[in-house]
Design goal:
The protein is an alpha/beta fold. The chain has seven helices and seven strands. It is globular, with a radius of gyration of 18 Å. The structure holds flavin mononucleotide. Flavin mononucleotide binds next to helix 1.
Length: 210
């Protein structure tokens, strides 16, 4: 099993999303010793924002791109290759201002690529090309946005992930949302982490069985 593991938190060892992601991998490794992990640290290596050259090159068919156009897409091409080359995906990230951290938005802008991660068929329909990759979105939130909480309507993170990755063909992702891990009483914070560790263990064990 080849897993692409993407981290986004600028915090090092203190990061909740990094710790939880590590737990998932260790759990998976117990039953899948052949596991290969490709770790992509977006906090250490933020993908570039989209440039004008990118906007032009991306819609020019690959066979007629100039060397400059290939250059403008080089980082994006490399990121897409890592994504397409994985059998399974783990995206770990903090919620920042109710949505994805900006490094992850820059990552999305680099990987949603026509004729690479999606295509348009002859009827004009969009077809995602990522296929049936097992996918976990692991998010950590300082506040509690679970249904029933006064902040439940503020979740602008889950819809972004569902839309962008659904478009590329990831239709059945699993979400583990650790919340509240910061703006809450100590007991509620530790309960949220225990819950998230438990959910991740269960997913890792399910993956190992299939
Ligand atoms: C710049 C910034 C913005 C944040 N915005 C939110 C937010 O909108 N909602 C929320 O619940 N928590 C928010 N938080 C709290 C983080 O999501 C929370 O601390 C999370 O555990 C961080 O993950 P990490 O430990 O992996 O970095 C924010 C934290 C920072 C530093």
């Amino acid at each position: 099993l080849k897993l692409l593991h993407v981290d986004c938190s600028p915090k090092g060892a203190r990061s909740n999303s990094r710790m939880l992601g590590q737990h998932f991998i260790e759990r998976l490794r117990r039953t899948a010793p052949m596991l290969i992990v490709d770790h992509l640290d977006l906090a250490a290596n933020p993908p570039p924002h989209i440039t004008e050259a990118f906007t032009i090159a991306t819609y020019v068919p690959q066979t007629i791109r100039t060397p400059e156009m290939h250059q403008a897409l080089a980082i994006s091409d490399a990121l897409c290759k890592r994504l397409l080359g994985a059998d399974a995906l783990l995206f770990a990230m903090p919620m920042y201002n109710w949505t994805v951290p900006s490094v992850f938005k820059a990552f999305i802008d680099n990987i949603v690529r026509q004729d690479v991660t999606y295509s348009v068929d002859t009827d004009g329909r969009y077809v995602g090309k990522l296929g049936a990759k097992k996918t976990v979105f692991l998010t950590t939130r300082g506040a509690d946005l679970r249904s029933g909480s006064p902040l439940a309507d503020m979740d602008a993170l889950t819809p972004v992930l569902r839309a962008a990755f659904g478009f590329m063909g990831i239709l059945d992702p699993v979400f583990v949302d650790a919340q509240p891990v910061q703006f809450a009483q100590e007991a509620d914070r530790s309960e949220a982490l225990v819950r998230a560790y438990g959910e991740l263990s269960a997913i890792a064990d399910r993956w190992s069985e299939s």
